[in-house]
What we know:
This protein has helices at 16-29, 51-70, 86-92, 100-109, 125-134, 161-176, 192-199, 206-219, and strands at residues 6-10, 35-39, 75-78, 97-99, 115-119, 141-146, 180-183, 203-205. The protein is an alpha/beta fold.
Amino acid sequence: MPAAVHLRAINPNTTSSMTAAIGRAALAAASAGTTVTAVNPEMGPASIESHYDEALAVPGLLAEIARGEADAVDAYVLACFGDPGLDAAREVASGPVVGIAEAAMHLATLLGRHFSIVTTLPRTIGRAEELAERYGFWGACSGIHAVDIPVLDLELPGSDARRQTADECRRALRTDGSDVIVLGCAGMADFCAEVSAELGVPVIDGVAAATRLAESLVALGLSTSRRGEYARPPLKEYRGALAEFSLSPAAW
């Protein structure tokens, strides 16, 4: 019998209530016997809604990868739709690291000819476009739409976020002629199934998608290639506030 998988879902922002929601979504998608732990950094932004936020979230994210390595974690889900720090995380994690944007777009192409992304703020549309192009899915992405809700407002008591998201998804299907919806924020995971049932099309939550893909990679005995770009980073000194991120031979 294969060994149980220990999967860690990392919320790159510091909001613990969102981390708990991410953990619930990952656990619901995980196979029986898979251990899921959901964590967030101790330092960084409360939410990630700009390039500035994204840049300052990466050190905390990498600190959580280091903790995961000490805990013998098998695979990681990076639970922010901008996939911040994904390349760096893959360089230092022993097991596979799956970003929720990349995972959701992969699955969307298996379920329909074209997909639309529905995200939070309009200012994040450019990042989603960039990722769709980088991952090779731009031809399948018919449009990217924003609900215009700040990330942390998705879980406010009395919030109408689910209704607004469903309405925007409906508009996206009509405008784009797409077959599948990709939700462009980990904070939307709680109502993914409801929106899918209401619209009658596949609606993909990246946390669930990344959880299953990460499990599959572990089951297949696959992890990040150490040839070329994702080879371990060169050992060197880091100074000042980043001194704790200096790598040593013992890390490899």
